[in-house]
TrEMBL record:
One of its GO terms (biological process) is FtsZ-dependent cytokinesis. It is found in: Cytoplasm. Signal peptide: none annotated. Its main location: cytoplasm. Belongs to the ZapD family. It comes from Thioalkalivibrio halophilus. PANTHER family: CELL DIVISION PROTEIN ZAPD. One of its GO terms (cellular component) is cell division site. Cell division factor that enhances FtsZ-ring assembly. Directly interacts with FtsZ and promotes bundling of FtsZ protofilaments, with a reduction in FtsZ GTPase activity. Interacts with FtsZ. It comes from the Bacteria. Keywords: Cell cycle, Cell division, Cytoplasm, Septation. The gene is zapD. This is Cell division protein ZapD.
Length: 256
């Protein structure tokens, strides 16, 4: 079977922030592992974006707040019949460990790069169209010519202060994604609108689409309802068109 394409729509800014951070750290890790000079260029670009993101908001406070909220909600399940007590204790231990790791991390996350002249020279050039060129930054050209081990070591050193934040982000999003129940629904003439139960603090809508259909969803949502409209991108050279046929797809509404 073809693996479905998953489209996720965050329903408030905290989840939007965590999804961006998750995507950037995955991009960094993939480029770091690939190891070629221009893979490491992409790894450094991702690292610049990550630091721009985590210094724009207090990401540690946001994560700690989300872990605290999840822990309180999970605690209500402690006495439910059929609960796996061993797995529950392991989950709660993870929650406490990650919260403590964030709480104990001293200093600003960007302390390792804030005063680094090389990193900052690259960061400044990245703000320009085309980014860093050899003729603008000879030191960058020289760095890309270094052995892969040397480049990898420096990139890992710069990423190290972000490890607790990265693990906590993955943990939080994993539990949010696992909180919903996948179901098959049909968008009549390519459009679906559904209310959201106000008794729950909904955080994310996930839509699964068979890639062989050649279409994609546009998802919008708020606290009370959400919509899914399917679009046909055609050959990507002209404007997409709304799908006018019924579409069956996977839907998961997540709240923890």
């Amino acid at each position: 079977m073809t693996r479905p394409l998953i489209f996720e729509q965050p329903l408030h800014e905290r989840i939007r922030l965590l999804l961006r951070l998750e995507a950037l750290t995955q991009r960094f890790g993939d480029a770091l592992q690939a190891g070629q000079p221009y893979d490491h260029h992409e790894a450094l670009v991702s690292l610049v974006d990550i630091y721009a993101l985590v210094t724009r908001v207090d990401i540690k406070r946001e994560l700690m707040g989300e872990i605290e909220r999840q822990t309180a909600n999970l605690q209500r399940l402690a006495d439910q019949p059929g609960i796996d007590s061993s797995r529950f204790r392991s989950t709660m231990d993870d929650q406490r460990r990650l919260h403590s790791a964030l709480e104990e991390q001293a200093g600003a996350l960007d302390g390792a790069v804030r005063e680094n002249e090389f990193f900052n020279s690259v960061r400044q050039r990245m703000a320009l169209p085309g980014g860093a060129f050899d003729f603008d930054l000879p030191i960058y050209h020289h760095w890309l010519s270094q052995p892969v081990e040397a480049r990898t070591e420096l990139l890992r050193e710069w990423f190290r202060p972000l490890e607790s934040v990265t693990e906590a982000t993955q943990h939080v999003l994993r539990y949010i994604r696992g909180s919903g129940n996948d179901r098959s629904v049909t968008a009549e003439e390519g459009f679906l609108e559904q209310p959201l139960d106000s008794q729950h603090a909904w955080q994310m809508i996930r839509v699964s689409v068979d890639p062989q259909l050649g279409i994609y969803p546009e998802i919008s949502g708020g606290r009370q309802r959400f919509t899914v409209r399917f679009m046909d991108p055609g050959d990507f050279r002209s404007r997409p068109n709304p799908v006018r046929e019924d579409v069956t797809f996977g839907l998961c509404c997540c709240a923890l």
